[in-house]
């Protein structure tokens, strides 16, 4: 294989619209094919990029002209699609969460190890530049060892247009799988990976949205570091009010007086079929001008706060604020690379051997274990001990 990695894309929905610019702009990536079950998405993609498009991943993964596949299909299809791709000798970049159950995740981990191919799980917000800079400060020891980590996020996630699978916990839907995976990745990344246990409660407050809409999670690492992850997708208080008015991708959040409760109210006017159609129209690829624009500020996945022995760290609009012994320091971060650019950098670096990746299939399985432990802890109202966690350098 040459320096150029020939990538095919499976799934042309929201995740691909967020990742596509990073894929297209990396000097070592050539996007050579795509697949979608939806004809409108296939036609639009073929029109804009003049590359072959297919109706399913089976044909895509068998192409000799493809070195790697970006799998952005629904969570419950990941195991089938990842195993098929690895069996045919391709590298894999797969969206989070890795799977909806540990046995499927274990199959993917074993298949990746057996094949010798790279599997990277992303995007997650542990790729955000401020989160990675927080870890660098912790690793440097400048303000002592980490002692507490918190991530709190309040959004309208539950009421945005959804496919039925996104509202089915069994299929990997709900905020614990879909949004908690971000939080648990961030917390594990900042704390070094080796979680010990989870105690959690989840919220099911709206019978019309039959899945987890919120969770409150207490996590403890093997070394005694503790963390909390709080998420509500019930479209009331927005955590952008705690993050300088900046949202998930570094854009200014819309003012509450014009946007308050819009998705919650609109969802109640739609049938499930109408909502699914609206989701396809909003998320599916239609034209290049609908790709995610770059944010003016650093991305905020809610409020992230780390307490170390001699200081605290939180995000600012342009980087970090470090609350040290005798002063508050502002650390500005470059905004030339998006989190999705960093995903592609890790993927390319893992394939060419220039870096030791963090977000492997094994990492994805450990994050999935936390998601499942949260659900089990909430059900049993007990602390759940973890078995697939590991330390990272």
TrEMBL record:
Q: Does the keyword Protease apply?
A: no
Q: Per its UniProt record, what Pfam families does this chain match?
A: GFO_IDH_MocA, GFO_IDH_MocA_C3
All copies of the Gfo/Idh/MocA-like oxidoreductase N-terminal domain together span: 5-123
Residue ranges that the Swiss-Prot or TrEMBL entry lists as coiled coil: none
UniProt domain GFO/IDH/MocA-like oxidoreductase: residue ranges: 131-235
Which of UniProt's keywords are assigned here?
A: Oxidoreductase
Q: Which PANTHER family match?
A: BCDNA.GH03377
Name under which the protein is recorded: Gfo/Idh/MocA family oxidoreductase
From which source organism is this entry? Alicyclobacillus fastidiosus
């Amino acid at each position: 294989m040459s320096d150029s990695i020939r990538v095919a894309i499976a799934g042309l929905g929201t995740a691909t619209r967020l990742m596509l610019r990073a894929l297209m702009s990396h000097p070592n990536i050539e996007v050579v094919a795509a697949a979608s079950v939806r004809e409108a998405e296939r036609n639009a993609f073929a029109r804009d990029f003049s590359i072959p498009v297919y109706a399913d991943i089976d044909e895509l993964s068998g192409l000799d002209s493809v070195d790697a596949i970006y799998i952005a299909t629904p969570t419950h299809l990941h195991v089938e699609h990842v195993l098929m791709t690895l069996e045919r000798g391709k590298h894999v970049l797969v969206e989070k969460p890795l799977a909806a159950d540990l046995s499927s995740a274990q199959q993917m981990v074993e298949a990746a190890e057996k094949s010798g191919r790279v599997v990277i799980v992303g995007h997650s917000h542990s790729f955000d530049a401020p989160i990675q800079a927080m870890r660098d400060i912790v690793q440097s020891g400048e303000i002592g060892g980490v002692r507490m980590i918190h991530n709190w996020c309040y959004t309208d996630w539950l009421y945005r247009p959804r496919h039925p699978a996104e509202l089915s916990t069994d299929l990997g839907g709900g905020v614990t799988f879909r949004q908690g995976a971000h939080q648990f990745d961030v917390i594990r990344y900042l704390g070094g990976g080796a979680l010990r246990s989870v105690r959690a409660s989840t919220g099911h407050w709206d019978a019309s949205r039959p899945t987890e809409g919120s969770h409150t999670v207490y996590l403890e690492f093997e070394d005694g570091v503790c963390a909390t992850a709080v998420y509500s997708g019930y479209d009331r208080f927005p955590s952008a009010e705690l993050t300088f008015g900046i949202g998930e991708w570094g854009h200014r959040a819309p003012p509450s007086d014009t946007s308050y409760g819009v998705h919650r109210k609109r969802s109640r006017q739609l049938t499930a079929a109408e909502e699914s159609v609206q989701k396809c129209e909003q998320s599916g690829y239609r034209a290049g001008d609908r790709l995610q624009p770059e944010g003016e500020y650093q991305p905020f996945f809610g409020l992230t706060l780390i307490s170390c022995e001699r200081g605290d760290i939180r995000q600012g609009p342009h980087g970090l604020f470090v609350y040290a012994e005798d002063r508050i320091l502002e650390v500005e971060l470059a905004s030339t690379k998006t989190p999705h650019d960093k995903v592609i950098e890790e993927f390319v670096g893992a394939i060419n051997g220039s870096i030791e990746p963090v977000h492997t299939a094994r990492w994805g399985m450990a994050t999935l274990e936390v998601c499942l432990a949260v659900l089990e802890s909430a059900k049993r109202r007990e602390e759940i001990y973890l078995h697939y966690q590991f330390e990272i350098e």
